[in-house]
Write a structure and sequence with these properties.
By secondary structure, this protein is of the alpha/beta class. It has helices spanning 10-22, 38-50, 78-87, 98-101, 121-124, 128-143, 155-167, 197-203, 205-218, 223-237; strands at residues 5-7, 27-32, 53-58, 92-94, 147-151, 173-177, 240-248, 260-268, 271-279. The chain has two domains: 5-177, HUPs (Rossmann fold), CATH 3.40.50; 190-275, 2-Layer Sandwich (Pantoate--beta-alanine Ligase, Chain: A,domain 2), CATH 3.30.1300. The protein contains ten helices and nine strands. The protein has a six-stranded parallel beta sheet with strand order 1-4-3-2-5-6, sandwiched between helices. It has a three-stranded antiparallel beta sheet with strand order 7-8-9. Helix 2 links the parallel strand 2 (27-32) and strand 3 (53-58). Bound molecules: adenosine monophosphate.
């Protein structure tokens, strides 16, 4: 099995992409922070259906972590990631040196409105989307792909990136991929390794409660009541809830008559989990 080509500089990445372009090939970017699991690989497989060459970026982006968050301890499993990507026959891994993204004197932070200020993740991680928008803009500018793929697991992030691309007229097609789950419903996440075995068992309640709330909503239950019911169930199971909200699926503003989404963030012990579910209008 061929290891993907591993590039660490913008110059090398651009030369590689230019070569592909000359051959008329379609290029996909799948941005990740590594510690890859089937959720990431599902995006690679989706990319494979729509592009000729795939770049997976692996960069644990310091600017999206607050000082008290887990930047230092975030799982880093580079060799295993390379092996998984070799199995998927990914052509290129872009694992930039930190100085390729944030060179000395770097002075940009992208601050978006709209979905980035919807009062969900941004309420609890106030600088998170500044870091995400800035690094994604850099990665898109450096790799100039035709398509870029992101997971619905991070639903607000996906909406923020769509808005970033629209507001900056970036010539890339953003594609969202469905959330991949464990058999008990827990959304795959690189941070699930932080859960104790008891917490791991309880964690499945998040998806179960969202599904129950979804059923209630589709049966005409009042949205506030459905959310309060789901919150109280999760609290009883031991979660400390940051938010559980019913929102418009595109703007992430108040739910209207179109497609909607239930979004939740909750802590189990010291591990913070997020998830969401679609509610067809
Ligand atoms: P991360 O490495 O956590 O920054 O995630 C990289 C990409 O993988 C993001 O677009 C995530 O939304 C996506 N992703 C993470 N977990 C999942 C999952 N369980 N299902 C689908 N996509 C996911």
């Amino acid at each position: 099995m061929n290891q993907p080509l591993c590039l660490r500089t913008v110059v090398d990445l651009r030369a590689q992409v230019a070569g592909w372009r000359q051959q008329g090939l379609r290029v996909a970017l799948v941005p990740t922070m590594g510690a890859l699991h089937d959720g990431h690989l599902s995006l690679v497989r989706l990319a494979r259906q729509q592009a000729d060459r795939i770049i997976v970026s692996i960069f644990v982006n310091p600017t999206q972590f607050a000082p008290h968050e887990d930047f230092g301890s975030y799982p880093r499993t580079f060799d295993q990631d390379m092996a998984l990507l070799a199995q998927e026959q990914v052509e290129c891994v872009y694992a930039p040196l930190a100085t390729e993204i944030y060179p000395a004197g770097f002075d940009l932070s992208i601050i978006l409105g709209g979905p980035a200020t919807a009062g969900l993740e941004d309420r609890f991680r106030p600088t998170f989307f500044h870091g995400v928008a800035t690094v994604v803009a850099k990665l898109l500018s450096q790799s100039a792909p035709d398509i870029a793929l992101f997971g619905e697991k991070d639903f607000q992030q996906l909406a923020v990136i769509r808005k970033l691309v629209r507001d900056l007229d970036l010539p890339v097609n953003v594609i969202g991929g469905p959330t991949i789950r464990e058999t008990d419903g827990l959304a795959l996440s690189s941070r699930n390794v932080y859960l104790s075995s008891q917490e791991r068992h309880t964690a499945a309640q998040i998806h179960a409660c969202l599904q129950e709330a979804r059923t209630a909503l589709l049966q005409g239950e009042d949205a506030h009541k459905a959310c309060e019911e789901a919150k109280s169930q999760l609290q009883k199971a031991g979660f400390d809830i940051d938010y559980l909200e019913y929102r418009d699926a595109v703007t992430l503003g108040p739910a209207g008559s179109g497609a909607c989404r239930l979004l939740v963030a909750a802590k189990l012990g010291t591990t913070r989990l997020i998830d969401n579910i679609g509610i067809e209008g």
